Amino acid sequence: MRQLEELKRGLEALGIKIREYTSYRAYGVRVHAVEWKGTNGIKYTAEQATYATLMYVKSSEIMSAEEAIATTIGDSMKVNYSLDEGAHAPVHNYREDAGTDLRCMEGVKVPAFGSVVIDTGTHVSIPLGYGGLLVSKSGLNIVHELTSTGLIDSGYTGSIKVRVYNLSDKEYVFEPGDKITQIVLVRIATPEWVQVDHVDGGARGDNGYGSTGA
Fold first, then answer.
1. This prediction's pTM
2. H or E segment at 33?
3. How far apart are CA 54 and CA 57, in angstroms?
4. 124, 129, 133, 138: CA torsion to nearest 10
5. What is the pLDDT of residue 96?
6. d(CA 106, CA 120)
7. What's the rounded mean pLDDT across residues 3-15?
8. What integer pLDDT is reported at residue 105 of this predicted model?
């Protein structure tokens, strides 16, 4: 019950209104239908959040409203996006899929052993506390030897562009609307970096690359 009261006070201090909450198991709280208004004036709702995701929201150590928003979104997350003229909407094929496919606006040729930057024409509003990791699609990677990677910050709202590398000896042609990469939203930490005289590590210490074998 003490945890429940801490959570409730912490959320109220952030201006977050809890419509309903119930205890579960011996630890923490399951929160239903949390409502709050961000500093941008937009009203957010998270239908489900657990105490575990809000464990740092305490009366003595309250997160910023933005951090609380990022940690309570969970499965009910909704991400806004817009499209340039001629762009194609992102595709999330199955609920269980980690990534959402991004598609090319126009036909593009990726030369053998070469690379090309492809504009998706997709603008995404990534929630604060998350990053958009661009990851190669397994089919393109394994079958056609095409790779791609990148990281989209939450503050970036420009069109997402990705460099696609062709590791094969054959040219590959993307048609308009073809899937070229996938974006995965990942939680990020934004720590305070502190310079010290010596960094303490584990058993490995400063043993370098390859120290444990090839």
1. 0.62
2. strand 29-37
3. 5
4. -100
5. 80
6. 9
7. 60
8. 94
55 contacts 6 by C-beta, under 8 angstroms: no
Backbone angles phi, psi at 6, to 5 degrees: -60, -45
The token duo for 197 is 């005289």
* Residue 113, C-beta contacts closer than 8 angstroms, at least 6 positions apart: 166, 167, 168, 169
Structure tokens at 210: 């390859």
Give the other-Cβ count within 10 Å of 112's Cβ.
Answer: 12
Number of C-beta neighbours around residue 128 at 10 A: 20
Asked if residue 18 has pLDDT above 70, the reply is no
Q: What three-state secondary structure class fits 52?
A: helix
Per-residue tokens: 193: 């970096």
Structure tokens at 203: 């058993």
Rounded Cα distance, 98 and 110, in Å: 26
